[in-house]
Amino acid sequence: MKDIPKFLPARVIKKHNSLTDGAIPGTPRQVLPDRLLNALYYKYEKEGPEFELSLQELKELVGLAKEKDDQRIYNTIAILQHPIQIRNFSYKGQEITWLSAPFLAMAIRYKQKNTKILFKIEPMVLEAIKQKGGYTPLDINICNRFKTKYGLKIYEMYQRYRSLPNRISEISSNDIGVIKKTLDELNFLFSTRYTSPSKLLDRQEKAPINRGLREIQRVTGEVIECFYDKYQKLFVFSWGRDISKERYPTPECIIPTVSVAPFAKWYTDHFVDRVKSRSGYLQNVIERIYANTLSNIERYYQLFLLERGKDPQKCFDHRRGKFIC
After folding, report:
1. Most Cβ neighbours (<10 Å): which of 24, 81, 180, 188?
2. DSSP string, 305-317
3. Where would I find the beta strands (DSSP E) of 122-233?
4. Which pLDDT belongs to residue 278?
5. pLDDT at 5
6. Average pLDDT, the chain
7. Helices (H) and strands (E) in the chain, counts
8. What would you measure as the largest C-alpha separation in the chain, in angstroms?
């Protein structure tokens, strides 16, 4: 059998919208705290509210595998132990519209485990992200490519709203997706204190929104436009919307819709024995493919492609973190 090509698999998190819509205060030009939050969220989804990471593992998760300055990581960990703001969730039967609390309850490096850091997420923040509700699927490998906070936060906002129906736009065409934000809302998102819309968006290339939109196009290839509506006093972000049939059954699925059923049957035929209901198990496999929770799904799908004479490397879109065939 041929060697299976190696590549960096997608690392998709289901980031709760209370965090996607939230902000880390006091970090207007710092993108690393947001990247670290996404990395720790990834570990939380895999291992629960307490987990250990070596410094090198942590650097790799935030896209700084070659970084030699450990203090930069320590400083960023400390930022996540300062209060962050989360909106609109329930706690012990009460509706909460705003919370200020640290994301991390603690981060400890024991002397006897000198290479490991123990992390624990703040319980009340954990309660917010555990609740049923909306979430934004994000590939942290893509998020780690952003060098500016503006680019990353606009990208997360775009990912949050890109697949939703366009209910807030006066533009009638379904080909266009739109998000509208006030100056205060964007200041909150960016942790900035601008008093004039022109400070965020103008003809200068260094204006925050200009920089963010250019970076999104460079990192992802997505083209997003923005203008300021001075009558409504709103920033209007817009993008072309693909109204054709979705290529993937769910945002987190990494296998094209047309291949899900054949791959699920192939997987069940090759690796499943002694099940009471084969049809029931097959449906369970399909559901796990949809949710991207099937163990080692990337490796199995590569074998599936190889048996069909296809090159797994050419069938994988590294930018999107998904298979395209």
Report:
1. 24
2. HHHTT--TTTTEE
3. 135-139, 176-181, 225-229
4. 63
5. 40
6. 82
7. 13, 14
8. 67
Predicted local confidence at residue 245, as pLDDT: 43
Residues of the chain with pLDDT under 70: 1-9, 113, 131-133, 163-176, 204-205, 241-246, 273-279, 319
Which are the contacts of 197, defined by CB distance < 8 A and separation ≥ 6?
A: 183, 228, 230, 233, 235
177 near 168, Cβ under 8 Å?
Answer: no
Residue with token string 């599936």: 304
In angstroms, the CA 118 to CA 43 distance is 12
What DSSP state is assigned to residue 275?
Answer: -
Give the residue from 290, 298, 318 showing the smallest Cα distance to 220.
318
Residues 6 or more apart whose Cβ sits within 8 Å of residue 244:
none
Hey, what are 189's tokens?
């998102």
How far is 114 from 6, CA to CA, in rounded Å? 31
| Phi and psi based region of residue 167 (left: phi greater than 0; alpha: psi -120 to 50; beta: remaining) | alpha
Q: Work out the angle between the directed axes of helices 32-47 and 149-161 (0-180°, nearest 10).
A: 50
Tokens of 248: 């993937």
